[in-house]
Amino acid sequence: VQLVESGGGEVQAGASLRLSCVASGRTFSINGVRWLRQAPGKEREFVSAITWSGGTPYYADSVRGRFTISRDSAKNTVYLQMNSLKPEDTAVYYCQAGVYWGQGTQVTVSS
Questions:
Q1: Are 29 and 2 in contact (CB under 8 A)?
Q2: Phi, psi of 102 (to 5 degrees)
Q3: Torsion sign, CA atoms 34, 40, 43, 45
Q4: Distance (Å) of CA 31 to CA 41, 48, 51
Q5: Which of 16, 20, 8 is nearest to 108 (CA)?
Q6: What is the Cα–Cα distance from 108 to 5, expressed in whole angstroms?
Q7: Strands 105-110 and 2-6
Q8: Mean pLDDT calculated for residue range 29-48
Q9: Which of 3, 43, 66, 93 could tie 102 with a disulfide, CB 3.0–4.6 Å?
Q10: What is the DSSP string of the chain?
Q11: 63-80 as b/e, with b when 16 or more CB fall inside 10 Å?
Q12: For 61-75, how does the pLDDT look when each residue is reduced to its tens digit (9 = 90+)?
């Protein structure tokens, strides 16, 4: 399985971004996809998760109400819609499926 993230960028506080995670390869082996992030000098932390079948999503308390995870099974893509971004959301965002990781996409939010 290969995972490729995109959609990161530099925005001001209050703006929105939508991250995409495209899966290819043995996608039938995927049970769920998680988004995690890692800010400079900090440990990687969980952001959100969704099952590949599109079940109940999960969110970290820090992003609940601002971020929305979704998936498009026809496109083998999981999205992370991020609204009302804050400077503390600045991090490299990764998608993960089991043992597979994407390369990450940088999100920078300025105040």
A1: no
A2: -85, 180
A3: negative
A4: 31, 14, 6
A5: 8
A6: 15
A7: unpaired
A8: 95
A9: 3
A10: -EEEEE--EEEETT--EEEEEEEESSGGG--EEEEEEE-TTS--EEEEEEETT----EE-TTTBTTEEEEEEGGGTEEEEEE-S--GGG-EEEEEEETTEE---EEEEEE-
A11: beeebbbebeeeebbbbb
A12: 999 999 999 999 899
How many residues comprise the chain? 111
For residue 33, what are the contacts with CB-CB under 8 A and spacing of at least 6? 21, 23, 49, 50, 52, 71, 78, 95, 96, 97
The whole-number pLDDT of residue 54 equals 74
Residue carrying the six token digits 């083998």: 76
In angstroms, the CA 71 to CA 85 distance is 21
Amino acid making up residue 99: V
| Predicted local confidence at residue 52, as pLDDT | 82
Residue the block writes with tokens 């991090």: 91
